[in-house]
Amino acid sequence: MDRTKKPRVLIVEDEVIIARNISRYLDHMGYDVTAICASSGEVMSSIRDDKPDVVLMDIRIEGAEDGIVVAERLHDLHQIPVVYLSALIDDETVQRVKATQPFGFLAKPFSQKELQITLEIALYKSGMERRLSEQEIHIQRLIDRMGQGFCLLDSQRRIRYANQALALLLCQTPEALVGHAADDWIILPAEGSARFQAWLDQRPLEVQVIPATGNPRTCVLTPQHLFDAQNIYSGSFLSLTDLLDVVRRETGLELPAKQCRE
């Protein structure tokens, strides 16, 4: 967020006196109040028109939808950080609040200082997440331009992300590969327990890759594994190089290209 501009805050509160007090607090703190809304319908309209940096969301508001439902939609459609406001909250509501990944929670009544600290933290966290997301997109674009197949696996060796080169090798789309286990398409040169040990050796391996259609391909698999603080396996970053592509580059021979049958 540009620090030369006032942070823009949308207040969602159906009690007029409380909303005005919050607005006055924000004005003293140097924030720009884009609007005060009392119902879910007003919120979505205001978001489109004013594009606030953060939303102060009362849980109990006017209309058929409460503040938690509205916050879910803001998260899904606009990725706008939400700070909840509430005087009373039960266990069920707490679980619903947690599921929306809020950037803060203020119990009524609260002071101007409490509001300021909560908003500053929420805006800082939002800015960090946005920068990390932009970096991730940049890295993914770089990986997608590479000729080698790359993918990221979770702790169950299921694909979390795959680049275009790997998708082409497997006769799939990157989106279709997400969630599939590496064992579904990689045949390691070992059996049983030795197979997983070969996987963990973290050295280049010659493997067979089985595409969705077409013939198996011989590739060099180079794994980089991830481990948590307890040294428990938590995922892998895989690089796969089709040996036919290597032969093409080194010899200049015209060899059969990757074929994906319909």
User: What general outline do the C-alpha atoms trace?
Assistant: elongated
Number of helices: 9
Q: What structural class is derived from the secondary structure elements? A: alpha/beta
How is the biggest beta sheet arranged? 6 strands, antiparallel
Distance between the first and last residues' Cα: 48 Å
Spatial extent as radius of gyration: 26 Å
Biggest sheet strand line-up: 7-6-11-10-9-8
Low-confidence stretches: none
Give the DSSP E fraction (strand runs of 2 or more residues).
Answer: 15-25%
SSE pattern:
EHEHEHEHEHEEHHEHEEEH
Itemize the secondary structure elements and their pairings:
Layout: E1 8-12, H1 16-29, E2 32-37, H2 40-50, E3 54-58, H3 67-77, E4 82-86, H4 91-99, E5 104-107, H5 112-144, E6 149-153, E7 159-162, H6 164-169, H7 174-177, E8 186-187, H8 192-200, E9 205-209, E10 217-227, E11 233-242, H9 243-251
Parallel strand pairs: 1-2, 1-3, 3-4, 4-5
Antiparallel strand pairs: 6-7, 6-11, 8-9, 9-10, 10-11
